[in-house]
Amino acid sequence: MYPTYEYASTVPAAAMLVSLGAMVLILLSSKSPNLREAWTLLAGVVKFALVVSLIPGALAGRVAAFEFLEIAPGVSLSLKADALGVFFALIASALWIVTSIYSIGYMRGNAEKKQTRYYASFALSLSATIGIAFASNLLTFVIFYELLTLATYPLVVHKETPAAIRAGRMYLAYALTAGLVFLAGTAWVYLATGTLEFQAGGMLDADMFSADGMRILFVLFLAGVGVKSGIMPLHSWLPAAMVAPTPVSALLHAVAVVKSGVFGVLRVVGFVFGPELMVSAGLDVILAVLAGGTILLASFIAMRQDNLKRRLAYSTVGHLSYIVLGAALITSAGFTGSLLHLAAHALMKITLFMCAGAIYVHMHKTEISELDGMGRAMPWTFGAFTIGALGLAGIPPINGFVSKFYLGMGALEGGQVVVLAIFLVSGLLNAGYFFPIVIRAFFRPSPQHPVYNEASFWMVGPLCLTAALAVLFGLFPDLLAPVFTLASGISAEILNPVPRP
Amino acid sequence: MIPEHLAVLSIVLYFIGALLIPLLARFARGMSWTLAVATSGGIFILNLAGIGGVLAAGSIRYAVGGWAPPIGIELVLDPLSAFFVLMMSGLACLVLVHSRRLVPEELPGRVTVYYSASLLMLGALTGIVLTGDLFNLYVFLEIAALAGYALLGAGTARAAVATFRYLILGTVGASLYLLGLGFLYLASGTLNMADLSAITDVTGLEPLMVIGLVFIVAGMGLKMALFPLHLWLPDVYASAPSTSTSLIAPLGTKVAAYVLIRILFYVMDPDIIRYELPFTTVLGLLGAVGIIWGSIMAIAQTDLRRMLAYSSIAQIGYIALGIGLGNVHGFIGAILHALNHACMKAGLFLVSGNLRAAGRSQEIAALDHTLQRTMPWTTAGFTLAALSMIGLPPLAGFFSKWYLLLGSWEKSNWIFIIVIVVSSLLNAVYFFRVIERLYLPKGDVKPAKDDPAGAPAVRLDRHFTLVVPVVVIGAGLLLLGLANLAIVRVLIQPMLPEGF
Predict the structure, then answer these.
(1) Which of A141, A438, B38, B433 is deepest in the core (most CB within 10 A)?
(2) Residue-level pLDDT at B65
(3) Nearest residue on chain B to A112, judged by CA atoms?
(4) DSSP string, A1-64
């Protein structure tokens, strides 16, 4: 279905660069907070509009491409807005706007220091994320991937407490090593094939490497993208990074950074190795075992966390592996479900994190055991939290149900009963670690007399919006943005690639 | 007239400058800095013209005094030597600009001598690179070393002791080179590089020559501080006056690496060196061990300059590793890393100089986040250079590692790949330790207390000569990274040795 062709366009570059420009403006207007936040919001809207303008082309197979300059013989720093890239960029740029509004409420409500550095790093992170989404080859990908690590480091250590600094060190150690390992794999591919361009259906042929070589290469790439996507045992940085301000956890540790990781998995599976090679070299098994194990383990660990953000972090670890496991199935419904879950989890988890942040700023509560009866004080916040929690457990009509349905279909399509069982059991475990929070908040008696005492509109507005969107996308996946069409299109593109010229 | 003399002009101009400075100081005291900067700046422009001429019209061979080789001395400006002299003169100019405030502070009363010795050393280093005669190379080696001892040993008593050790070891290195040279002469009857190359093409490598090469590699290994011959370096770099370190650290070791490359891959037949003798294997392995050893030792240091010195040992290991790979990618990686590391290390040592100019200690533990407010450009320059050392894209250091990785894969050398990956991580450990201190308050201090909001920051990097070179190098690292392919294609491809 996808006779794609490329045309030169500056739109992908502009979408990437707009927040880089905003970063400079933010740094220059540090004296005037309102102007500074205006730049962030303006850049967010412009970026989102630019990404949206790329959707029709991506749906029709017209791929906007932009080349900056050649950085290695035959390899350019270049961006290409293919369907998968647009899909990810759309999620990241849309949620950046929401998070930015929320950030204003959170940062001011919490009287945080160094807000200029915060907003500037955020803008840079978004540039890197869009760069990752649109990277047209492995080297461009790894460059933006490393840039993202660097740009998010100041956000992780934002609080400047010993714990934050420790978490920052850990984050760097994991993420930089991963980037280097990925780079080593990239160098190997370059040497063996002379090209690094992503290719739907895979850019490698079976005869390019020995069977063992292929497996080693896959492990190199997987270690590279596995850190950011939190595949166990490479996940420990993520719970530690929860010391960051909550908007950072919301956008970066539920959407931009960790999704860059799973996006990388999808690129590696669908566009570097390709479905055929994945199956013939047994790579899908490696991926599935790791992801399946992660889902179950992370869910069990999540149950034991009393700190709300840490529980959400382990839940993120588990759900990221849903996406990975969906891709590992190498089936049409599996890929579709994987992509849908990428979008759905982003919406739901950002809602949950924003709720956690609102509770923290407004009530100064961080532990789940302190939440008794809070639902009556903050009904909107806990209402949104409930929607997110139900969605992640896979209850209809929230979007998490749709994606899990497709993931389950994908498991059946591939005849993988074990995988189906993992999805089902994990759904129950999700309920097991989320519902107690909801029950506590709404049905346990409150220590004080509950009065309506909701957080600032700047925080409650965005989190209600994302919760509403989660329901809306669950009912009508293609209503506001062609999420479903894009997802199924990408799945078809990977599985039935147009033969290479 | 000038084009044909380009090969000799830069050496001569440095030496004339070295002589003029003390003369001029009799009449105008403050002129030494101006003259030194003007000389090095002029030579940089000449070298730009030189590399342009070489790339357009081919190598320039210059017979000094009109005496044709093998009787006379020949200077050769080819793509390799033109590249190195350009890099050296550019960095020297920046470091000399930077020295304006520091030299009178660190060496009161000896400013004239300092600049005279600097130009003498630069002239000799340029001579080492340009000469086409093996014995003449030795002469320049000794001139550079003597001037270098003077620069490094000036100042404190510690510096004098450290430099004395360097003097002994450096002389051993030079003597080893001379000894090797004797063997080569014995076997071939010539000291001219081109002649020797032509002779070995016919005779192959005789055992005597191999012995000579072993001595030369050992001698140059000592001069470039290749593991395990690196012991002299940390003390010298850490105790010398900071401008001397900034001048010598980026250039001195690179020149020794240049001599290795020149003799192994250009004078000798690279195929024999690479495939029949274990020279490259040994160099590569020593480089790899040096990378890890230097990085670990850098982590263990508490003094910024000692940390940078050990980091130099590790980075020299990269260059040796690239030479040791003995393939095109490795060669490109080695040359590119020589350039990148020279720029990065110059930048880092200039930052250390700025700390000194601001009256700050070099103890890493004494660095704190107030520096970020009082010296914003300096800390930014440090961060850029450090990120480049770690090898983060799109800074320059990333791309030299990329080529070294390609070269390692090409040889299927797993050890080297692991070394490159692990060492980048170790680099991150010791550089982020400093970056953390520069930007974040120490963990035990409440950020609100010692950070009086709105208090006007006292700018400590107060003079433009202290700031501009650091900023130029920081921006240059970004540019070198983005333009790396142009450098590889235009400058490095033409210099690839025959047979690569």
Answers:
(1) A141
(2) 81
(3) B448
(4) ----EEEE-SHHHHHHHHHHHHHHHHHHTTT-HHHHHHHHHHHHHHHHHHHHHHHHHHHHTEEE
DSSP assignment string, B74-136: EEEE-HHHHHHHHHHHHHHHHHHHHHHHHHHHHSTT-HHHHHHHHHHHHHHHHHHHHB-BHHH
Radius of gyration over alpha carbons of chain A, in Å?
A: 21
* Cβ-nearest to A113 among B399, B406, B447: B447
Could you give the C-alpha distances from A117 to A189, A442, B197, B256, in angstroms and in order?
38, 38, 59, 43
Distance from B439 to chain A by nearest Cα, in Å?
A: 9
- DSSP secondary structure letters along B336-394: HHHHHHHHHHHHHHHHHHHHHHTT---BGGG--THHHHHSHHHHHHHHHHHHHHHT-TT
Tokens coding A338 = 């994987």
The answer to whether the CB atoms of A69 and B405 lie below 8 A apart is no
Between A135 and B374, where is the model more confident?
Answer: A135
Q: What is the DSSP letter of B192?
A: B
Whether the pLDDT of residue A100 is over 70: the answer is yes
Q: CB A188 to CB B448 under 8 A?
A: no
With CA atoms as reference, the chain A residue closest to B443 would be A162
Mean pLDDT taken over chain B? 87
Q: Are B448 and A184 within 8 A, CB to CB?
A: no
Residue of B nearest to A183 (CA): B402
Per-residue confidence band for B456, with pLDDT thresholds at 50, 70 and 90: very low
Residue B194: exposure state from Cβ atoms within 10 A (0-12, 13-18, ≥19)? middle
Can you tell me the mean pLDDT for B431-448? 72
The pLDDT tens digits for B340-377 are 999 999 999 999 888 888 878 888 888 888 888 888 88
First to last CA, chain A: 16
Q: Are β-strands A5-8 and A62-72 bridged in parallel, bridged antiparallel, or unpaired?
A: parallel
- Backbone conformation region of residue A364, classed left if phi is above 0, alpha if psi is from -120 to 50, else beta: left
C-beta contacts of A476-479 below 8 A and 24+ residues apart: A477/A340, A477/A399, A477/A402
Q: Tell me the chain B residues in contact with residue A161 when contact means C-beta distances shorter than 8 Å.
A: 443
Amino acid identity for residue B127 in this structure: G
Q: For residue A282, what is the DSSP state?
A: T
Each residue's pLDDT tens digit, B242-259: 888 899 988 988 999 999
Backbone angles phi, psi at A58, to 5 degrees: -65, -35
Mean pLDDT, rounded, of chain A: 87
3-state secondary structure of B449: coil
Check A157 against B440: CB less than 8 A apart.
yes
By the 10 Å C-beta count (0-12 exposed, 13-18 middle, 19+ buried), A213 is classed as middle
Candidate from A227-236, A248-257, A321-330 with smallest mean pLDDT: A248-257
CA distance A191 to chain B (A): 7
**The predicted structure's pLDDT at residue A374:** 81
Q: What percent of chain A has pLDDT over 90?
A: 20
CB proximity B496 to A under 8 Å:
no
pLDDT digits (tens, 9 = 90+) for A45-65: 999 999 989 888 888 888 888
